[in-house]
Every structure is written in structure tokens, then in C-alpha cells.
């Protein structure tokens, strides 16, 4: 897939072993981006990213002169019943070119190709990612609708909000859960993917994310305060 914007050409393709040279750059940017947002994502090593490339379970975006521009990979859980498109990241230099949406579209297609019967889900604190997901047919769901595979939830241990997740018995956190069910007709009708007012204004996504963060952090802080009184 080719994209041309402001005289910068991007190639968005399925990654392979020849792209392993970018693994450190990718994982470093994943970590830096999470720190900048004040949230956490499952921390991955360069070796893990390289495995995804070798397996053909990742999408990478490169400029015409070979610079890394973006990345996302596929993870399967519950013996392939659930699939997640994880680690979506775009190099800071190329974040105003609509690459996140294009990469997300391509990794979604790849997921459907490799796992046509699997439910695709995601957890995110990013309003932009929430909107992209809704355009693909994801709908907001409760955490109980996600995989119960412990290996998936172990990936949250590196998140700064892990304590909140565990205090809620893995039933809620700052992230919003979204899911695409290939066997559900509702996912094939965009009007049912998300409320109309959300579609019209990305700022409403931002307000939702900020409100949830405020409420969750306040509740968690209140819980700590109450506990300290009795300790």
C-alpha cells in the first residue's frame, strides 16, 4: 500500500525478517510514547517484535528512503479465539500524515486474513485509536467480554495503571475495551459501531477518556486514603 503526502511517500507492508533492524527503534518509541502520555502499554522487547516480523504478524510503514515511520503487530490469545492488534506506534516525525489510521487498517486486514473466525479486541486510552477502531466496526464492551487468557493480562504488569486494574479484579481500568466480532452483524453496520455524536467530534472521545481517567484515579486515591485511616 502506497501513500503520498506533502512529498513524503510511505510504504505500508507486512513486516518480515528483513525489517528486524528497526526493532530497537520501534520498542524504544513505544516506551517513550507511553511515558509521554502518562499511561502504560505492555512492554515488549526488540526480540519479541522481531519474532512477530518473522511470523508475518506485523505491519510496518517505511518512507521511500527506508526510514521507519510506523508499526503494529498481531497477538493471538485463547488458542486463537481472540486476536489483538497491539503496539500501534508512529514515529514522532510522521505523526501528522494519517499513518496511524492507515497502519491500523492494514493490520486489521491482516488479522482478518490470518484469523478469519477470531474476535478482534483492543484496550486503549487514546481517543484517536478509539475512533479508528469504531470506523473498523469495533464497539465498546466491558472487560468481561475480552479474553480470560492470563498471558494477555500479564502484559499489563508494565503499565503504570496495573494497580488500578487489579484493584478492579480485571473488570475495569483507564483503558477503554473495544471489540470486533466477525460473527455479529452489528459490526458490519457503521452506524452501530459508536454513537453518532462521537463520530462527528474527536473532542468527545478526548472528554470521555479524560473523564474516565479522572474518576478512576480519584476513586483509587480515595480508596488508599480510607485504607490508610484504618491501618
TrEMBL record:
<dbReference type="GO" id="GO:0016747">
    <property type="term" value="F:acyltransferase activity, transferring groups other than amino-acyl groups"/>
</dbReference>
<dbReference type="InterPro" id="IPR016181">
    <property type="entry name" value="Acyl_CoA_acyltransferase"/>
</dbReference>
<dbReference type="InterPro" id="IPR000182">
    <property type="entry name" value="GNAT_dom"/>
</dbReference>
<protein>
    <recommendedName>
        <fullName>N-acetyltransferase domain-containing protein</fullName>
    </recommendedName>
</protein>
<feature type="domain" description="N-acetyltransferase">
    <location>
        <begin position="46"/>
        <end position="109"/>
    </location>
</feature>
<dbReference type="Pfam" id="PF00583">
    <property type="entry name" value="Acetyltransf_1"/>
</dbReference>
Amino acid at each position: 500500500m502506497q501513500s503520498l503526502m506533502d512529498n513524503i511517500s510511505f510504504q505500508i507492508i507486512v513486516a518480515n525478517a528483513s525489517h528486524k533492524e528497526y526493532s530497537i527503534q520501534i520498542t524504544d518509541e513505544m516506551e517513550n510514547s507511553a511515558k509521554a502520555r502518562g499511561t502504560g502499554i505492555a512492554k515488549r522487547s526488540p526480540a519479541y517484535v522481531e519474532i512477530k516480523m518473522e511470523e508475518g504478524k506485523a505491519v510496518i510503514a517505511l518512507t521511500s528512503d527506508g526510514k521507519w515511520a510506523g508499526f503494529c503487530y498481531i497477538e493471538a490469545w485463547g488458542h486463537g479465539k481472540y486476536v489483538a492488534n497491539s503496539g500501534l506506534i508512529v514515529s514522532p516525525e510522521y505523526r501528522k500524515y494519517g499513518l496511524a489510521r492507515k497502519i491500523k487498517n492494514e493490520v486489521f486486514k491482516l488479522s482478518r486474513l490470518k484469523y478469519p473466525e477470531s474476535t478482534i479486541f483492543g484496550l486503549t486510552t487514546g481517543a484517536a485509536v478509539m475512533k479508528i477502531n469504531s470506523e473498523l466496526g469495533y464497539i465498546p464492551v466491558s472487560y468481561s467480554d475480552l479474553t480470560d487468557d492470563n498471558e494477555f493480562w500479564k502484559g499489563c504488569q508494565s503499565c503504570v495503571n496495573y494497580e488500578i486494574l487489579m484493584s478492579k479484579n480485571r473488570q475495569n481500568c483507564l483503558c477503554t475495551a473495544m471489540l470486533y466480532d466477525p460473527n455479529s452483524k452489528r459490526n458490519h453496520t457503521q452506524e452501530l459501531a459508536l454513537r453518532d455524536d462521537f463520530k462527528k467530534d474527536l473532542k468527545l472521545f478526548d472528554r470521555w477518556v479524560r473523564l474516565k481517567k479522572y474518576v478512576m484515579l480519584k476513586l483509587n486515591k480515595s480508596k488508599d486514603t480510607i485504607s490508610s485511616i484504618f491501618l
